[in-house]
Amino acid sequence: MTMRGLVVMLLLCSSVRADDPLRWQRLGGSVPQAEVVLTQLQPDGTIRTAAPEPKSIPGNDLIALIRDTIPQPGAPASRYLQLRNGDRWPGRVRSCNDASLEWLPSWGNGLGTPGGDPILPISLGQVAVIWMDRPLQRVTQSESWQRVLTQPRRRDVVLLANGDLVEGTLEAIDPEPLEVRLRTSGEEEPMKITKIPMLQVVAIALNTELTRIRKPLTKTFQLVCQDGGIWTARRIEGDGTELRAELLTGGKIRIPWGELVALRVLQGDATYCEDVRPTRVEATPFQEFAGQWVAMTPNSPTPLALRRSDQQTDFLEHGFRASVGVTLRFPLNRRSSRFEARIGVADDGLPVRNRADVRVEILVDQQDRTPESLRNCRVATGAEWVRVDTTNARELTIRVLPGRSGSTGAEVHFGDARLVK
Question: Where does the record place the Glycosyl hydrolase family 98 putative carbohydrate-binding module domain (predicted)?
Fold first, then answer.
């Protein structure tokens, strides 16, 4: 059996010590493999294991390491830096001027600090949003703020705790006397400095026209931590107790293995479907619902939400969502060995949608390859991993149709949807 396109899932006890070996479960294709104990992660992604027997798994076969016993987290609950590439760095601002800032990183909801560089400098051109304090849902979910997050911005926008928005150009963030300084203009004064007490500031969304972020052309590693932090590294290594990472933006951090929830290889042997443009999209309205699909992008305001078998929810940043009536056709050009994704009805907490069921069809070169479990999907049944062989195929077709009840209000999420070489 080939190890090509290996997907690895981390299996841990609920209580993890820093010096405990990590237990991994390998999933090659659709057949679960024996549980192994990780002893080393080398810079090229190669994994060395100790049990049930010593073994080396080549880094070229690695797609992801997922801790299966802990839900994939959403955004951090409190202060964090949101980068344009989708990274989320928990911590706080040490200093900031109109060109760059210094960030003090943390992990474990502020209970610890990653080893390595205690201060991470970064240019404002790489920053999307600075979350200053615990976000208030009634404020951050307002229509005006959602427009700020989802539309291009020519100016910096400060969100206040009362829901007001202040536009201008960020001049500085001063730890003393704890204030944000913004260059603003008005009818009477063409240019002035507005000082806003830090306690009134919820977030600062930065100008989107400053810098255009390009995806790296070489392999990178996306690290997801229990506190919702996401760190992208160009180089990683670990010894079973901690993971050491050289960040894509510069700087180095060390994270205890107990904090790591997922490690995904980007620009490797798997192409996530948000990076693949469908050759054709068909959307058929059903009843009052218009069929639509949305591919995840860095900093998508709403992550994918999928129910787990333990009734908790995984929040995922890779993949796409599609409502009833959508047909997607992805080009394969005989370059993919399989399509895989965690597929399920969106776990959005709405009682009406929780009762809805849908049918998902997967066709490879117009041949039906749909697993039986996808013919009647509900939130309550939870999401499941689906793997479909696409060897030598030219096209992958995915359809979302009404289920047995005929309901049309549900949305299907395809988490970690990817094409494996």
Answer: 317-419
